[in-house]
Amino acid sequence: MVNETKYSNRAIPKISLRDFDTRIDAIATELVAAAETDGFFAIVDHGISWREISAQFAQAERFFALPDAVKSTVPFTHQNVGWEKAAQVRPSTGQPDQKESYQMQYGPAMRDAWLSEEILPGFREASLAFMRKVQAVSEELMICLARGLGFDDDYFVRAHDIADPNLQTVLRLLHYFPLDPDAPIPETHHRAGAHTDWGLLTLLFQRPGESGLEICPGRDVFTEFGLRDTWTKVEPVEGEIICNIGDLLMSWSDDRFKSNFHRVRTPRDPAVDYFGPRYSMAYFNQPVKSYLVQGPLKKYPIVSGAEFIQAAVQRNYAALEARKATDRKQENAEPGPLTAASS
Length: 343
Ligand SMILES: O=C(O)CCC(=O)C(=O)O
Ligand SMILES: [Fe+2]
What we know:
Keywords: Iron, Metal-binding, Oxidoreductase. Residues 323-343 are annotated as: Disordered. Belongs to the iron/ascorbate-dependent oxidoreductase family. With 343 residues, the protein is α+β, with helices and mostly antiparallel strands. It has one domain (14-330): Jelly Rolls. The protein is 30% helix and 19% strand. It has seven helices and 15 strands. Strands 2-3-11-8-13-6-5-4 form an eight-stranded mixed β-sheet. The longest helix is centred in the last third of the chain and has 29 residues, at 305-333. The radius of gyration is 20 Å and the shape is globular. It starts with 5 loop residues before the first strand and ends in a 10-residue tail after the last helix. The model is unreliable at 335-343 (pLDDT under 50). Fe (ii) ion is lined by residues 195, 197, 262.
């Protein structure tokens, strides 16, 4: 049976970073209000021009246009870098996302994860320069959010120092494949299944027209993988950065700031949905591995950045295993078509 999605047209806050130094308190108030409620907000006047964003999208298109045999020479690794294709299974769906992605970091994790200059001239330098620009915007947001929690202004900035070789921050390029509006698309097809992000704060870039992102504000705790909620579509607007709070900041703020579900929905209705390819870029602020994480109220035990991310990976894995077990039980209970046994 098809689950009908419920939608609400709630507007997500649009926050301008114009005149940051003089307006910092007003900006912090707006950011904290958004972080405490929906956990999503759009940033404008952030200083990265549409030309610069478009240039990095062009780099992403160059990368993904390469043959799979070339991209697979820089495979996704446990260091959280590299290329994957239709390999990320979300606990919310139990199915691999129908996309490919390539993740880059600043430090030694990238040792074997860059393609050579012969294959993709200029890609590495351009991508790192773009990442530094997104880092600068992230740092402005971090200062405001630290202020809101009563930490020193540079508290999160120090924890996300791009000069530290153990920083875990990632720029992920994403490519969702085009679909044929005239061909049936199986219910099990998901562009990106519903999930929360693990890190501190995610900054997402989209291109106008390439829609599909949906958010689900109003979740209380990050340990659930529950669905069937009310979703809101986020139409891409030129130059806007969509930001969302991640699980790490939810924990680091003693649950004051909300890490909420989002997904990229598979198009279903040719009259309204976008079936073409979608490119997006997500900058995941994730701390230096050794940095110690604990909220001002000490609601959760102190953990290192590395432990937090590892626990998130394990929680995801456990939820996935539980989901597989439930799916297997249901398959055994319902007499259905015979399928070949998998070994
Ligand atoms: O592609 C998108 O718009 C969303 C990607 C995303 O949520 C993720 O990779 O965590
Ligand atoms: Fe995400």
